[in-house]
């Protein structure tokens, strides 16, 4: 059986994260100061959004775009701030935060996101070193899948900009703490 190492890197900080709003499709990064250190990886995958592509570029990483690593689709909430939703749609926000199957925004539910990420993990070739630049929600979904945690734990995980989370696979996925 082949051994696999997977490192997920969260994209660098954006203005959306700074002010607490859902991302727009092409949100750019805030300036990186100092520039992040380039990790080593044999194979690189990159989420298709601008913020992931810019982070990969800043890290000197080159690889194909992988649509399975895309951020959660927030439907009509895209670009809205949490504060706005707390005032304008508190029931919808509460439903989304409390039920993994809820998608009051008309986009992708947490459970749909987690299923997409689990499918991606099952299809990732089982050998070698992999590095993927992606989004906090994709990293949360990966953690839940690997740890076999309930989907209700999704919103209890914080993933900071440029965070690196490591996994290994030898018969089954494991969280790898370095």
UniProtKB/TrEMBL annotation:
Domain of life the protein comes from: Bacteria
A Pfam family the protein falls into: His_Phos_1
Name of the protein: Broad specificity phosphatase PhoE
Organism in which the protein naturally occurs: Pseudomonas japonica
């Amino acid at each position: 059986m082949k051994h696999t190492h997977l490192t997920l890197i969260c994209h660098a900080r954006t203005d959306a994260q700074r002010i607490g709003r859902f991302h727009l499709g092409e949100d750019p990064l805030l300036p990186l100061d100092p520039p992040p250190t380039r990790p080593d990886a044999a194979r690189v995958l990159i989420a298709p959004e601008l913020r992931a592509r810019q982070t990969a570029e800043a890290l000197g990483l080159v690889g194909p775009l992988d649509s399975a690593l895309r951020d959660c689709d927030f439907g009509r909430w895209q670009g809205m701030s949490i504060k706005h939703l707390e005032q304008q749609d508190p029931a919808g926000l509460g439903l989304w935060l409390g039920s993994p199957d809820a998608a009051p925004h008309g986009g992708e539910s947490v459970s749909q996101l987690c299923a997409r990420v689990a499918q991606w993990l099952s299809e990732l070739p089982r050998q070698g070193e992999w590095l993927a630049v992606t989004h906090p929600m994709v990293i949360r979904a990966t953690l839940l899948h690997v740890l076999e945690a309930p989907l209700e734990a999704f919103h209890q995980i914080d993933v900071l900009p440029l965070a690196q989370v490591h996994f290994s696979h030898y018969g089954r996925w494991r969280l790898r703490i370095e």
